[in-house]
Amino acid sequence: MYAGAAALEAHGLGMRYRRGWALKDCSFRLPAGRICGLVGPNGAGKTTLLSIAAHVLEPTQGTLSLFGAAPGVADSGRTAFLAQEKPLFRGFTVAETLRLGRELNPSWDQRAAEDIVRAGDVPFDAKINTLSGGQRTRVALALALGKRPDLLLLDEPMSDLDPVARKELMGILLGEAAERGTTVLMSTHVLAEMENVCDYLVVLSGGRVRLAGDVDELLSVHTMVTGIKEGEGLPSSLAHHPLVESRISGRQFTALIRPEGPVAGFGETDSPSLEELLLAYLRSPDASPLITPTAQAQERDQAYSTRTVAA
Ligand SMILES: Nc1ncnc2c1ncn2[C@@H]1O[C@H](COP(=O)(O)OP(=O)(O)OP(=O)(O)O)[C@@H](O)[C@H]1O
């Protein structure tokens, strides 16, 4: 594996389906060891990006590298992908599913996989097609974590789990990531949940990267301003600061800005929560994109073309 390389790095990544571009000119880097939330409205391109990283799809343009190598080659690290549809063999039992995982993965951790299944009281002799959606998710997550991956790609992993199972499996995921330095890239629509889980963020909309970087860094460069509106709109002096989103309710306005210099005399200022930041960007697809320095794609030389390198 390429020492010091980003866990994932995209350069000018594009994916075109028959109906048009699902991803366009996407460039960003995800440093190793981070837990990254991948956020965006329906159809933003999240599954497409995860599928390229998982070597399920070949990009139409640009490159994506994992630990400095193309997806699917030996140097790209161990990658596990938990897709939305959880592709398990429906006729297999849970035990047979884990056995297959063990046979296919030299670094397989049977105990970790079994513990996840057992914690949900899922019978090992039950066939996959007899399990509930949430139980299938648990088995699929056991299969993904049993691989001991360096990079875990999760596409809305917890959407069919009950709240208790969700919290428990998220805890296992975080414990695993902390213990082994696993990098996680996880698409989700549950913004409130991300606050305690993710320390990195990529926001896509319309197939383009709108926001990428360290969560603390992204929060620190935004300010939420609340005050009394001036005439029909925002105070004119606020126009000196790039605006992400503003909302007016009665006589009051709320604006999320990226302050350039002191923000005083408009009303109250506060740091946004992660949920407020995300909602503002999701509601304002025309806000200018922001990719923090740690998230800027760098290793052009080491970014291999998946089309030319992949076997
Ligand atoms: N196999 C395909 N063939 C044609 N178009 C596709 C295909 N897969 C995805 N698309 C289109 O590409 C765009 C991005 O889809 P994608 O599934 O990557 O979005 P997403 O962000 O994961 O959405 P969601 O939040 O709804 O899961 C959408 O416009 C979708 O209709």
TrEMBL record:
SMART domains: AAA. Gene3D superfamilies: P-loop containing nucleotide triphosphate hydrolases. Signal peptide: none annotated. GO terms for molecular function: ATP binding. SUPFAM superfamilies: P-loop containing nucleoside triphosphate hydrolases. InterPro entries: AAA+_ATPase, ABC_transporter-like_ATP-bd, ABC_transporter-like_CS, ABC_Transporter_VariousFunc, P-loop_NTPase. Pfam families: ABC_tran. Residues 8-231 form the ABC transporter domain. Keywords: ATP-binding, Nucleotide-binding, Transport. It comes from the Bacteria. PANTHER family: ABC TRANSPORTER ATP-BINDING PROTEIN ALBC-RELATED. This is ABC transporter ATP-binding protein.
